[in-house]
Amino acid sequence: MFFHRQELQHKATPDKPDAVYAHKLQEVLGGQYGEITVAMQYGFQSWNAHMPGKYRDLLYGIGAEEMGHVEMLATMIAQLLEKAPLGVTEGAMQNDPTVAAIIGGTDPQHAIVAGAGARPVDSNGNPWTAGYVTASGNMLADFTANANAEMQGRLQVSRLYHMTDDAGVRDLLAFLLARDTMHQNQWIAAAAELREEGIEDLPVPSTFPLSKEHREASYQYINFSDGQAASEGSWASGPTPDGKGDFEYLAEPPAGVPAPPPTKPDVRFHGTTSMPEPVEKAMGAAQDALHKE
Hints:
Residues 230-293 are annotated as: Disordered. The protein is mainly α. It folds into two domains: 19-196, Up-down Bundle (Ferritin); 210-250, no CATH class. It has helices at 19-25, 27-30, 35-47, 54-81, 97-104, 108-112, 139-161, 167-196, 277-292; strands at 220-222, 238-239, 246-250. Strands 1-3-2 form a three-stranded mixed sheet, with no helix packed on it.
């Protein structure tokens, strides 16, 4: 059961309206690594978790917080749009308000569709999609994906921070950056703890028998590029992070195997609905010719 408290985790009030910046801020609301994504990602991971205890509770807690971040950004965007010119923008060399809005960097749909409110879209107007969500049921894989999501999100927020001089906006972004810092560290710590407790390990999934792999290829760095500098990295020699082998560097790919012959699909009609006899004969003749090649 969810309850809503009519207050924000942090202040979300800009110093002045700015429809152009509201358009940019949509990215960290409805983009691939925006707050809607992480809220839904952590939510589905928690709802799909089969093991009660600290890991599921961690997912529940951060997922609920991220829903609050969605609300803060939506509130900020709505206030940036309040009393802002949602047509002709300063310096736009167009008489048509819609064209001027596009050239000026505002989002016409903020006014036309959302009535000067935030939308579940990215900064290009692409709708948020559930395809952004990762919830595999494997906690080590998911926690690693969560750390990446927080890193990508924090990267975008930090760029947006430098795209405005508005102190109110910067104050909210500074808070969100701090929470992203915390969440990055939490997911990395949780992933490490899963391994320490033997719940999951590398390579994921650890339940798949390594004996069923082609083990001779499991730790080979096969260089498919004409650059050689990658051989200097720790990923090319020495023990592997999973502790189950040693890296081997191959400067060139081994010899391949012949490709199979071209397929010859049976294109003759096999449906339950009859075909015109001339068409069926022509298709049959073509198929016979194909198999004689």
